Amino acid sequence: MTSHPPDAGKRQTLELILSPPHPCGYLPHALANTLHVNPALPMDMGRFEYLLASGFRRSGNLVYRPWCSGCDDCVPVRVRVADFQSTRTMRRVIRRNRDLTIQSGGPNFSPEHFRLYQRYLNSRHGDGPMADPQPEEFAEFLHSDWCAVRFIDFRHQGRLLQTAVVDLLGNSLSAVYTFYDPEETARSLGTLAILWEIEWARQLELSWVYLGYWIADCAKMRYKSRFQPLEAYINRRWIPLPDPE
Fold it and tell me: Residue 44 is inside which H or E element, if any?
């Protein structure tokens, strides 16, 4: 399978590889297929941003998207930054976390980041394949050789509560992954991270914040529809996705 993203005014072919069926990470008892860009081919931020706008995501250096037979439940979504309006609940989350300091840094490996990542995964995914991660798995998942990756740290009196991993691109931010202290659920840190990313994108005059995949039948993924106006990539075009709740 091939695709033709633009590059410096030229059209280039990217080889796409379809994986064998594997257990779905979102829907129980379902099988999934994943479409990968051949990792042997060169990748850069311009090409990746084009693919991001075509429904792809990044895991480490691997660019992929779900491509499942008979299922299109994984819907790529993005926030339209210029028109975003926070809700009363979101503004309460911001007030609740005024005592935090927030700092952006590079993706160099940090034992502090890894310890928080371990705690988060073992709390949220303790019975799944992501449990008990190793340092090399952390780096392979979040770092990238060709992308401008930023680690956004949220701290309370110096203690790391949350890290949001973000790709900074030419006209967008892509929220790669967020992990936080599982004992700090009252702070709604995941919501805070997205609100911070949207505001950062606004300050940088970027158009979009990509939030990955929205899945109506997966409770862990439905929350994304609260960030309005949200657009969904359906039938190869971006259309509004109202909050169904």
Answer: none
Structure tokens at 162: 């949350």
Antiparallel, parallel or unpaired: β 237-240 and 31-32: unpaired
The parent domain of residue 94 ranges over: 77-108+150-240
159: left (phi over 0), alpha (psi -120 to 50) or beta: beta
23 inside domain: no
Q: How would you class 191 by CB atoms within 10 Å of its CB: exposed for 0-12, middle for 13-18, buried for 19 or more?
A: buried
- Residue 19 resides in a domain: no
The predicted-structure confidence for 92-151, as pLDDT tens digits, reads as follows 999 999 999 999 999 888 999 999 999 999 887 655 556 678 899 999 999 999 999 999
Cα three-residue angle 148-42-168, rounded to 5 degrees:
15
Residue 141 counted as domain residue: no
Structural domains in the chain (count): 1
User: CB neighbours (10 Å) of residue 182?
Assistant: 14
What is the per-residue DSSP string for 52-118?
HTTT-EEETTEEEEE-BTTB---EEEEEEGGG----HHHHHHHHHTTT-EEEEE-----HHHHHHHH
pTM (two decimals)? 0.92
The residue written with tokens 């039948």 in the block is 217
Which CATH number does the domain housing residue 156 bear? 3.40.630.30
Which residues, listed in sequence order, are joined to residue 81 by a DSSP beta bridge?
none
236-240 long-range CB contacts below 8 Å, 24 or more apart?
236/54, 238/53, 238/78
Residue 113 forms part of a structural domain: no
Q: What is the CA radius of gyration of the chain?
A: 18
